[in-house]
């Protein structure tokens, strides 16, 4: 019980500081935004709201002026089941990558950020 309260409190702190210091997305033309949407098509981020590694990925996306589809695997039990069945672990963040009819699952926040940066370069 005490651990749950501590974890909840820490999660709220993470969300608060993330909100306070959330990076401003770069100014982009509509054409540049549309290009990013196209480059990141087929990507879905499985995340938890207050997970620090997920926060890191969401902040990196904002810094890049990018966004991907997101599902909250804590609140959405069907998404949690998809993650476990597809990726093999109930661990977040995890990026579901659907390309040319193939699906793969990428764990590790640093690898996810590197993958997205490479997609946009
Ligand atoms: N090294 C990983 C750590 C991810 C991690 O520990 N995520 C936690 C949530 S904050 C988790 O899903 N833990 C469950 C598990 O490891 O099975 C990363 O950078 O993505």
Automatic annotation (TrEMBL):
Any matching Pfam family: GST_N_3
Coiled coil: none
Domain GST N-terminal as annotated: residue spans: 45-119
Gene3D superfamilies per the UniProt record, alphabetical: Glutaredoxin (3.40.30.10)
Signal peptide: none
Protein name (database record): Glutaredoxin
């Amino acid at each position: 019980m005490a651990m749950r309260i501590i974890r909840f409190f820490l999660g709220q702190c993470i969300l608060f500081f993330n909100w306070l210091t959330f990076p401003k997305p770069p100014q982009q033309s509509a054409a540049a935004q549309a290009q990013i949407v196209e480059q990141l098509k087929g990507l879905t981020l499985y995340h938890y709201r207050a997970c620090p590694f997920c926060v890191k990925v969401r902040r990196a996306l904002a810094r890049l002026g990018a966004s991907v589809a997101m599902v909250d695997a804590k609140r959405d039990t069907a998404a949690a089941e998809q993650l476990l069945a597809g990726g093999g672990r109930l661990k977040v963040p995890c990026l579901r990558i659907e390309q040319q009819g193939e699906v793969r699952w990428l764990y590790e926040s640093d690898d996810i950020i590197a993958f997205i940066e490479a997609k946009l370069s």
